[in-house]
TrEMBL record:
Residues 161-253 are annotated as: Disordered. Belongs to the CFAP97 family. It comes from Candidula unifasciata. Pfam families: Hmw_CFAP97. This is Cilia- and flagella-associated protein 97. InterPro entries: CFAP97D1/2, Hmw/CFAP97.
Amino acid sequence: MHRSYYPILPSQNKFLQKRWDDKYYSEHVKKVRDAAPVVDTRPPATFLHLHLRLKKLQLEEERLSTIERDNRLLLEKMSYIMRTRGRVDNRNNYMNKSLNLEKRKRELLRVTKENQLILYRINMRKPEYNHQKWQLEWEKNQKFMDNISAYPVDWWIKEKKTPRSGKSGRKSAHETQEDKTKKETKQKDENAEKEVEEQKTNIKTEQETEKDTRQKDEKKKKKKKEASKIKDEVKVKEQLQVPVEDDARVDEK
């Protein structure tokens, strides 16, 4: 290997020159590797107690130990109760005592009686507006409007049904006798249909009025029954309860 080595400087022996150069190079590499830096780039020294926080770990262990101890005690108590079915009687015959209990009861009865009387008056009040009368008046007004108006009801539908001759849509002056008879028969049929519809509407209105009268009669009967029940209850309560004036005197004393 030393024969193929070409030194930079002239030398008499290539073998020794190669050994010397390798030695100088290894020393140089060692010096570079072990050279002390001018700027200290190492991380700062860390203290162990700042990272571990032993006090916190100790408190956490104590808390867990107390929780485990409480759970164990509760479990022992529950198992004892399940085995022996307990030794405590849960019955309690204590009654809440109040000095003004009777007075409050009488006041509540008075308020309920007044509310029931107000409700009875509201339900027995007749309405001031009659919807059936309004319906009849509306039908009359519709008839008057049909008589006054230049075009009858649904006139555009009737025009669509009747055939037209020519682009302008005007009727031809030379109508045959057959066309006239057809129109007359159509008008008769339409008038008959209108009469039938009017009869149906009249029958429906009569049925609705009958239903309304029946419902009103039933409501009146129910209200009378409720009023009689309320009066009976009030009489019984008045007989059972103590008069309010005596209680007021007792309270004043």
